[in-house]
Write a structure and sequence with these properties.
CATH class of the largest domain: Alpha Beta
CATH superfamily of the largest domain: Impact, N-terminal domain
Strand content: 35-45%
Pfam families: Impact_N
Shape: elongated
Number of helices: 6
Protein name: IMPACT family protein
Distance between the termini: 34 Å
Strand order of the largest sheet: 2-3-6-4-5
Largest sheet: 5 strands, antiparallel
Family: Belongs to the IMPACT family.
Organism: Lutibacter aestuarii
Number of domains: 2
């Protein structure tokens, strides 16, 4: 059900994520402490850096379990139990990511062992709860899925190009003014074909998706 909801969001060319990292959310169970963190991420390199940062901060903890999801159309995800019984930590954390329909996100739950074993059911509840607590604190934002186009044209056609950019409220990500003008623009996915057609109708530039 959660996956279906996420797919519906993506069909509308928007997705949910967070802009700002949050921590710490604390959950206690029979002496064990579970501390939740959440980070906005866009690559596996960023994920590794965040995990190492949390491990360094909590170097005396017993477990550093996590789940992440990346992408907006081709989704990737990973869960890690970090020594806890299979599917007792990473998967419950990931379930909370899915329940809030989020992507480009990493949730880490650090465990300090309190001396009493919780059993698989207890662990599932603890990691799920810690993940939910930190995600409830995070500010969720809705972003658009954007397509990037490169425009190459002669300077004499600048006014025609800029007129479309202004009328369509497009963002210029990069521009070079040399022998020709070279723009990289960002277009919301649902408007991309219309915008591409408008530029092609000018017949004075080359446009391609990048």
């Amino acid at each position: 059900m959660c996956i279906l909801k996420l797919c519906n969001i993506l069909e509308k060319d928007t997705y949910k994520t967070i802009d700002v990292a949050k921590g710490e959310a604390l959950y206690k169970e029979k002496g064990s402490k579970f501390i939740g963190y959440v980070f906005p991420v866009t690559s596996e390199d960023e994920i590794k850096e965040c995990i190492e940062r949390v491990k360094k901060k909590h170097h005396t903890a017993r477990h550093w379990c996590y789940a992440w999801q990346l992408g907006v159309e081709n989704l990737q995800y990973r869960v890690n139990d970090d020594g806890e019984p299979n599917n007792s930590a990473g998967q419950p954390i990931y379930g909370q990511i899915l329940s809030k329909e989020l992507t480009n996100i990493l949730v880490i739950v650090v465990r300090y062992f309190g001396g009493t074993k919780l059993g698989v059911g207890g662990l599932i509840n603890a990691y799920k709860t810690a993940a939910k607590l930190i995600l409830d604190e995070a500010e969720i934002v809705v972003k658009t899925i954007d397509i990037h186009f490169q425009l190459i044209f002669e300077y004499q056609y600048m006014n025609k190009v800029m007129r479309i950019i202004k009328e369509e409220n497009l963002e210029i990500l990069n521009q070079k003014m040399e022998l020709n003008c070279d723009f990289i623009i960002s277009v919301r996915k649902k408007n991309s074909q219309k915008v591409k057609d408008r530029f092609e109708d000018l017949r004075c530039l080359n446009i391609k998706e990048v």
